[in-house]
Amino acid sequence: MLHTHQLQPYFLFLSPHSHTVSFPFPSRTTTSHSPRFPVTSIRRGSSSLRFRNRGRASISNSVADGGTEHQKQPVNRAYPFHEIEPKWQRFWEHNRTFRTPDDDIDTTKPKYYVLDMFPYPSGAGLHVGHPLGYTATDILARYKRMQGYNVLHPMGWDAFGLPAEQYAIETGTHPKLTTVRNINRFRTQLKSLGFSYDWDREISTIEPDYYKWTQWIFLQLLKRGLAYQAEVPVNWCPALGTVLANEEVIDGVSERGGHPVIRKPMRQWMLKITAYADRLLEDLDDLDWPESVKEMQRNWIGRSEGAEMEFCILDSDGKDRDIKIIVYTTRPETIFGATYLVVAPEHPLLPSLVSIAQSKHVEDYVDLATRKSDLERTELQKEKTGVFTGCYAKNPANGEAIPIWVADYVLGGYGTGAIMAVPAHDSRDYDFAQKYDVPICWVVTPDGKSVDFGKAFNGEGIIVNSSNTLVGLDINGLSSKEAALTVIEWAEKSGKGKRKVNYKLRDWLFARQRYWGEPIPVIFMDDSGETVPLYETELPLILPELDDFSPTGTGEPPLSKAVSWVKTADSLSGRPATRETNTMPQWAGSCWYYLRFMDPHNSKELVGKAKERYWGPVDVYVGGAEHAVLHLLYARFWHKVLFDIGVVSTKEPFQCVINQGIILGEVQYMACRDQDGNLMSADSTDLLNERKLEIIPAEKVMKSGDSFVLKENPNIRLHARAHKMSKSRGNVVNPDDVVSEYGADSLRLYEMFMGPLRDSKTWSTSGIEGVHRFLGRTWRLIVGSPLSDGTFKDGTVSVDEEPTLEQLRCLHKCIAKVTEEIEGTRFNTGISAMMEFLNAAYKWDKHPRSVIEAFVLLLSPYAPHMAEELWSRLGHRKSLAYVPFPKANPTYLKDSTVVLPVQINGKTRGTIEVEETCSEEEAFVLASRDEKLSKYLDGQSVKKRIYVPGKILNVVLDRENSKVGVQ
């Protein structure tokens, strides 16, 4: 019910330190204390809520102030979003509406920390794929605020790294300038989408106040022996002048730029992540992460149990040499089937294993292998290659001499860098043996019978062909598991081997020969070469500004050019020293940023203990699946180190991880042309490969069954495909253009409505037009219809009207559905529920205020600009950001209706939905109004009605007085 004072004209006064808007009464003019930006007033001339004779109040037809004059206007304006959205964005910023209290926070309230994987601010700015995850987290943040939670929802920038440096080199602009410019653009774009970030907590990894603590963490790792230097084989790209991760090398060239990459040993900083392998593996079970992500991390860690076995090297006379090769195997029970050994190209013993006759072949092969990354070498689909070394080893189980090969599918960093190859029971070994004509011996069969399967049998079974009394080993007839234990026991007793747990996980290579990264806070004493960490009081070690930051071409990092910075002295002894000139990888700054958001202005600690205990861990972390392994694994590793030294109180940083899908470009329809230039079907692989494709405009395409065809010639079937958005394809959609044409709320709503958050989706312009119409219908229902002069016809919200039972049921079912779907991050079906509600509301004669206000609150997390405007126009004096979210009343969720069959002269002609307590007369009236049944009843004479409540209504017509044709 509206009170009289609510109808008085007023102006909004903004309080910069509150989430509310104060309304001075009865003032009707602005004063010197007016807000910094114009806001909508409810004027007497266009009454905001004037009563009508029917007891309704209309919503103001005044247009919201605050639109920008030069902003592109939409072609068909369903509602004035171009005025509403900038207005409320300024309001939120001016009032710091979404500021999360810091020291003054009420810790008795529950907390909710929802975080996006912060972006790298590229020069291209945002594309429409970015808002997908950001909108999802914003809906959760707004929803939880309305539920009374303290919400932490910040944003920052992962701004160091190779892309920025390469762009700077190409353009001749310092990376700091381009990065800051890109950050400003990203920030503007994010604000234009109405995301409720607490911008007071904004951080950037390139700021010294931030990377001071990145350097501090490195020092803690160094103190605990978790950071060390070692000479390791690396992927070196001469053109980029840096070491690349395996994931950054494709087919022997760099992912960025396509430059040649070689393998060479270099002294590098390493982080001992392997020391945490078991904990990283075990703690996955307690996390609410996608199972696929957890499985990827398990595979990356790659824990396996097996044995290390010793193989003696034989000389040219077949006698044992003093050299032994140790191999690691996860299947020791197959040792009798080992018919050759394979060593990695980088194995330290390889030079002593090569015969003179094979030396040139081996040398050439090793040179070729150095040009491949580890990922390329171990790719299962690629054909395996190798070269015989000319040397043999003795199988310790059966004493047979077996050849030693060098092959790049064995990695020097995994296990011992050498394997015993059992081609009968390993697919890779089998393919290799077939290619190079190496013997194959089956030692495991499903039923204990020796059989040549014609392919590798990789499963477990019963052991055969595996007995040698001379060495005291007989495992014939044992199961695979029993035989494995027996072989390990024999190896340990005979000194031929031992039990071993191994990991695929390698220590983290933590140095980059680049300029644009965090300086590593160590010095090397000139007189002794000793590595000395900086004192914590010397942090941050500022990255010096360089005019020439291009690669040196010598392998020396660009920082070596900063001679006055490099040449320094130990602060304690004064002895001359040289600074480390490598920088940290881009992963460093993103390993712990979620902690800094909890306490971003703390100059004394990485994060205050009380704040960390309150906010940790992150409740929901949303980002792309491409970060499923490395970023998440590295962040977990650092978090566990920080847990061990008492900086954090939780074992894991992110309780729930959600990977949003990608948004593909609009579907393209393609046909081929034959030799005469005529269009022809392009729905077969052969045609697609052999003939040039031609893109067909969407307006010339129609659906025919499961295919797409030309409208003018349905016999021509088209190939339909959606590609990932990229500049080269020309299918990138700029969110700025969408916001200008349809509004930010339409973009937000559409990206959530496209489909399940975790699925990949295809962009469709017609799709966004649909949700834009939904918002327009919402506006018209409450505010009114647009008129030719730019004003709006009055809407019809009832002030005094009590909602009907039907309306309450409709509303509370919508509340229950939207609530359930937000909680389950199924945002698309929540939107569907609101659309269904709106369709129902348009059929009502009256629209009670309480029902409409609840619907506006439901809409607000999805379309916050429109919701705030509607809430204001409904006469509320505070932002709805902290208004309690509606709760469904179980009373109205129960269905008390039944589907009643209706018979005409004993024949069922249709059904109607009625209340369980519906009377016979009410049921008959409903049947008469039903479109399907009315044709049987209109103008007919009813002889009698037979009504069984909740069961059936049978209308018996007077045949003598009935119209012809009704039986």
Q: Mind sketching the topology for me?
A:
Blueprint: E1 13-14, E2 21-22, E3 56-57, H1 81-95, E4 111-116, H2 130-146, E5 150-152, E6 156-157, H3 162-171, H4 175-192, E7 203-204, H5 208-223, E8 227-237, E9 242-244, E10 249-250, E11 253-254, E12 262-271, H6 277-282, H7 291-301, E13 304-314, E14 320-329, E15 340-343, H8 359-369, H9 374-377, E16 386-394, E17 401-407, E18 418-421, H10 427-436, E19 444-445, E20 462-463, E21 467-468, E22 473-474, H11 480-494, E23 497-502, E24 508-509, E25 522-525, E26 531-533, H12 563-566, E27 567-569, E28 576-579, H13 587-590, H14 593-596, H15 609-615, E29 620-623, H16 630-644, E30 657-659, E31 663-664, E32 668-673, E33 679-680, H17 685-690, E34 693-696, E35 701-704, E36 707-710, E37 717-721, H18 735-742, H19 744-753, E38 761-762, H20 765-782, E39 797-798, H21 805-823, H22 827-841, H23 849-859, H24 864-873, E40 897-904, E41 907-915, H25 920-929, H26 931-937, E42 942-948, E43 952-957
Parallel strand pairs: 4-5, 4-29, 6-7, 15-17, 29-30, 31-38, 40-43
Antiparallel strand pairs: 1-2, 3-39, 8-9, 8-12, 10-11, 12-24, 13-14, 13-16, 13-23, 15-18, 16-17, 19-20, 21-22, 25-26, 25-28, 27-28, 32-33, 32-34, 32-37, 35-36, 36-37, 40-41, 42-43
Count of the domains: 6
Are there runs of 5+ residues with pLDDT below 50, and where? 1-76
- Roughly how many Å is the radius of gyration? 36 Å
Tally of DSSP helical segments: 26
CATH superfamily of the largest domain: Valyl/Leucyl/Isoleucyl-tRNA synthetase, editing domain
| Percent of residues in β-strands | 15-25%
What is the architecture of the largest domain at the second tier of CATH?
Answer: Alpha-Beta Complex
Molecular shape: globular
